[in-house]
Amino acid sequence: MAIVYTGLGSNVGEREEYLASARGLIVAGTGSRIIAESSISETEPVDFTDQPMFINQIIKIEVSLEPEELLDSFKKIEKMLGRQYRFSKGPREIDIDILLYNNLIYRSERLIIPHPEIINRKFILKHLVELDPELADPVTSKKYREVLSNGSF
After folding, report:
1. pTM flag (> 0.90)
2. Spans in the chain with pLDDT lower than 50
3. CB 132 within 8 A of CB 59
4. Are 135 and 143 a contacting pair, CB within 8 Å?
5. What domains does the chain contain, in order, with CATH numbers?
6. Among 33, 65, 111, 150, which residue carries the largest CB count within 10 Å?
């Protein structure tokens, strides 16, 4: 079984309902178990800023799927919840990202683990530290709490 930190985000429609539905469908659709949930925070959009505010959360799950299988499951769940791909970095009903998968460093055409934006997004760092203050980046071995406190994001 793998421990996976999963990012959830929404900025369209009933945002809290999308996150709640995603959590339920992740458990049902991947055979995973939620170990922990971060708080939910409202955040400014990044990259494309002319869009509504996001709400974001990270859930820590235990799952037996391999990374690409998990990605496929997450994409199916996004589709089930009505996610419309308008344009890159644009508004979305639900966004489900694999942030960390054990201590795996993984790169394919479809997936990069750890998620490359972790160290650039303060809200992701805060949620990861909230879930596990000792959690470290698999690439650099730096603890995320140190990255957060140093403002190196």
Report:
1. yes
2. none
3. no
4. yes
5. 2-116 (3.30.70.560)
6. 65
